[in-house]
Model the fold of this input.
Amino acid sequence: MPHLVLYNYFRSSTSFRVRAALHLKGLDFEYKPVNLLKGEQHLPQYRNINPMGGVPALVHKEKVISDSTAILEYLNEVFPEPNLFPEDPYLRARVREVCEIVNSSMHPYGNLKVLQHLTVAHGYTHEQKDQWVQKWTTQGLEALETILSNFAGDYCFGNRVTMADLYVFPQLITCQRFNVDLSKYSLLMKIFKNCEYHPDFIKAHLSNQIDTPEELRKS
Ligand SMILES: N[C@@H](CCC(=O)N[C@@H](CS)C(=O)NCC(=O)O)C(=O)O
Done:
């Protein structure tokens, strides 16, 4: 088995993406928790691994890669089965479009450092931070619901998991955490429920990790 080490945090949606890919590809990995709430991402020894101070970071055969998108592309090239992209180049482009909507236009607004800045510099309350995430993620949700209506089956693109599901599913969990009203996104909720029961998504889920606090574990 290849030696893979994943620096990550149970609740991080970018970490989920990579955990799910590793499980889908049947790859064993060593789980190294980085506690974001304790600020372990800012420690010099972690900054040596990822100078951006974020999770995830992957070490494969002593070579480091950080940023989930780069890691996922690498894993899919080095361990091609099952392919997380469709065969068709047009569909591949549309999968990447969906991933990028989540990655650039949704995820950053709920990121810990952004929310911490809103609290420290602007005095945001818990409710104001919820409203902030709600405001900025809604546009992405609307776009995803429309785009995926052309492609979805059980999952975002047809009836098998693709890279798009690895981005969309954990982002919907984040939306729930910030009380975003997801009830009107019926397609996204259908995909969410199917992902929720996928065995590799269960293994990657925030409630099942070694650093998951007891109160967030699924019984
Ligand atoms: N684009 C990066 C973002 C990484 C990132 O910011 N991850 C979050 C967790 S989901 C993090 O580590 N945040 C630390 C912080 O905000 O201090 C990726 O996809 O890996």
